[in-house]
Amino acid sequence: MTDIISAFSLVVSIVALWRSEKAHREANAAQRRIVEIEEQRERERRLSALQASLYPRLSRTERGERLYVVNSGKAEARNVRVKLDGVPLNEHPVAVRGSDIPTLIGANSEVSCVLAITLGSPPPPYEIEIRWDDDSGMDRVYRGTLTF
Predict the structure, then answer these.
(1) Contact yes or no for 138/90 (Cβ under 8 A)
(2) Residue 97 contacts by C-beta under 8 Å, 6 or more apart in sequence?
(3) Is the overall model pTM greater than 0.85, yes or no?
(4) Hey, which of 15, 45, 56, 128 has its CA 20 to 30 A from 103?
């Protein structure tokens, strides 16, 4: 009888050891996944600090229409190029000569230029493409439809 109890105790101990080892492996796998997620967040945070984030806004004022390019990112945008309806902004029919978007836009800032939307020019909406460089080293682009 003692041998049966001893054998049963041995089986229970082996099962407990096996379950404990399995729980330990699962906990380690979960911990590794948490570390990977935190490392990914840190990489994304560092990348975000290097990126400009540009988007356009079309506005009517008492002086006419303005195209704003807003940088909501944490880095400056350089070599900014704007196209309306597939042509460079300064060649589009609504462009006002001498009123261009600057090629450098600081972090958390905006720039604008005057547009001449008249009866003789095509009305909004316009397809807009904004391209720029920033410290991320990636080719950055915004594409969308511009309207009031």
Answers:
(1) no
(2) 90
(3) no
(4) 45
Residue 1 has pLDDT above 80, yes or no: no
Whole-number Å distance between alpha carbons of 106 and 73: 9
Given pLDDT bands bounded at 50, 70 and 90, which one contains residue 47? confident
Cis before 125? omega within 30 = yes
DSSP per-residue string spanning 54-122: EEEEEEEETTEEEEEEEE-SSS-BEEEEEEETTEEGGGSTTBPTT----S-B-TTEEEEEEE---TTSP
Taking only Cα atoms into account, the Rg of the chain, rounded to an integer number of angstroms, comes to: 30
pLDDT band for position 66 (cuts 50, 70, 90): very high
Work out the average pLDDT over 142-147.
96
CB 136 within 8 A of CB 76: no
Distance CA 133, CA 53 (A): 10
Q: Which of 124, 119, 138, 133 is CA-nearest to residue 54?
A: 133
